[in-house]
Specification:
Elements: H1 11-32, H2 44-50, E1 56-60, H3 88-103, E2 110-113, H4 117-126, E3 134-136, H5 148-163, E4 172-176, H6 178-185, E5 195-202, E6 205-212, H7 217-220
Parallel strand pairs: 1-4, 2-3, 2-4
Antiparallel strand pairs: 1-5, 5-6
């Protein structure tokens, strides 16, 4: 006797199963929405690329004094007493980052910073030997206290700065805030003092390559030779 085979499914039944599978997959995708941002640590190969220039380094300002909050929405950009500011640890962290970048031989051609005191001071301390590179950009202001409508020009300005091409042999540094990057690409940069490496692609496009938290520099750079 020939082996028993189950009857073939009718075409309409096969179509129904296919449709159900597609609907299930779509529902799962819709429920999950966009995948969560995945942070990755920069490696030595990426650091070597930075020495050739052409990248954007987005630096979240240094460690701040958490006991002093911004007096939103009445923050006075010219009065640091109305803002959260760097702590002594943050100031030392900024100075050390400047020395690290020099030791790592990372060339910097321009430093664009938020107008808030904590970002401005971070930029000034990190690049104390190159003050001519610094300029403030009002549209890099802290977005956490803004409405969705108020955020739009800040997000647009941030996108323009991280996507505009950078000449070979130099890098662009942006010193700003974590909420700005969260609004731009779903990445809340932490801890304070972290450097985010981006490849500008032009036409409002950019690529995230890796992050360097303060504690990660010791992994990327060999210890100083003993004298």
């Amino acid at each position: 006797m020939p082996p028993h085979r189950p009857p073939a499914a009718k075409p309409q039944h096969r179509l129904a199963r296919t449709a159900l599978a597609c609907m299930t997959a779509w529902a799962g995708s819709a429920a999950g929405q966009a995948p969560a941002f995945q942070e990755k640590l920069a490696d030595a190969a990426l650091l070597a690329q930075l020495r050739n220039g052409g990248f954007v380094l987005y630096l979240r300002h240094g460690v701040t004094d958490g006991t002093r909050a911004d007096r939103a929405p009445q923050v006075d950009l010219n009065d640091c007493s109305t803002q959260r500011v760097l702590s002594d640890e943050g100031r030392q962290q900024a100075r050390e980052l400047g020395l690290i970048l020099q030791r790592a031989r990372v060339p910097v051609g321009e430093v664009i910073h938020s107008p808030l005191c904590r970002a401005r001071e971070s930029a000034q301390l990190t690049f104390a030997s190159q003050p001519q590179l610094l300029r403030a950009e009002p549209l890099l202001a802290y977005t956490a206290n803004l409405t969705s409508e108020q955020k739009k020009p800040v997000i647009a300005a941030t996108r323009a700065l991280v996507s505009a091409p950078v000449p070979d042999g130099t890098n662009r540094v942006i010193v700003a805030h974590a909420p700005n990057m969260a609004d731009l690409m779903g990445y809340f940069v932490k801890p304070e003092g972290t450097v985010v490496v981006l490849r500008p692609l032009g036409q409002s496009r950019f690529e995230y390559l890796g992050s360097i938290p303060p504690s990660h520099w010791s992994t990327l750079l060999p210890p100083n030779p003993k004298h």
